Amino acid sequence: MKTFHMDADAISAANELLGHASPQEILRWAVKHFHPHLLMATAFGAEGCCLLHMLSEIEPRVTFINLDTGYQFPETLALREKIKERYGIEVELIKPDSTVAEYEAEHGGPLYDLRPDQCCHDRKILPLKRAMAQYDPRAWISAIRKDQTTDRAVAGVVQWDAKFNLVKVNPLLNWTKKEVWKFILDHNVPYNDLHDQGYPSIGCWPCTNAVGADGDERSGRWAGKKKKECGLHVIENKDGAGI
Fold it and tell me: How many domains are contained in the chain?
């Protein structure tokens, strides 16, 4: 992997330029500055599907990946096929080194309940790091919104991602859930069928529950635990420590 760095002044200038820009304007900026060294990781959430729709019109040759932990819902994998049929975009499945059966045998059973942070690290973070090394991107696109979690609340539209040593671009950072679903309905964007079954946020099936009408959209993720992030969007400083 080649060394690449965008300094603090350049990131500050990018945020000054794009702080109030539309997601499409932010995506065009990212494509202009980083394609073909531009990657999007998607879990096929509602936000990610919006970005897939936008990029299909702006630059469909961006590298698209999904972290297939082995614990994804069948509905999530079915959505991948709907995306391919609608946009001609084939999202590559990035898998861990071991199958679910091998992983659980190695650890004496599932880790998602006893040690969920390790499970996420082994089956999401490490595969993404390998994908980063394989594709050597200079920037990656995420679909986070700042109103989702405390870590996401302090993110920038453009930021340096110390975990992966590249630029992270968050085109939907300033959008609300209402804006996401308006875009989906206005543009007939394919989305996960589980959203209509009480799942506002969808991850791996062992760690994702449906929520009631009064629950916030992240309350179904790792329900009953303090954990609200898999680790991909936890901000790290230069030493790798979370802040």
Answer: 1
- Read off the amino acid at residue 87: Y
SS3 string of 150-200?
HHHHCCCCEEEECCCCEEEECCCCCCCHHHHHHHHHHHCCCCCHHHHHCCC
Q: Which helix (H) or strand (E) holds 24?
A: helix 23-34
Selection from 74, 55, 35, 70 nearest residue 172 by Cα: 55
90 part of a folded domain: yes
CA angle 200, 203, 206 (to 5 degrees): 110
The answer to whether residue 207 is catalytic is: no
pLDDT of residue 4: 72
- In a domain, residue 240? The reply is no
> Residue 243 half-sphere exposure, CB side, CA atoms within 13 Å?
10
CATH code for the domain in which residue 115 is found: 3.40.50.620
Question: Domain limits at 21?
Answer: 8-207
Q: Answer yes or no: is 241 within a domain.
A: no
From the list 49, 119, 204, 230, the catalytic residue is 230
Predicted local confidence at residue 162, as pLDDT: 87
Q: How many helices (H) and strands (E) does the chain have?
A: 9, 6
Res 109: pLDDT: 95
The torsion angle over the Cα atoms of residues 145, 152, 19 and 169, rounded to 10 degrees, is: -80
**pTM for the structure as a whole:** 0.88
Q: Is residue 51 part of a domain?
A: yes
Enumerate the β-bridge partners of residue 139.
38, 167
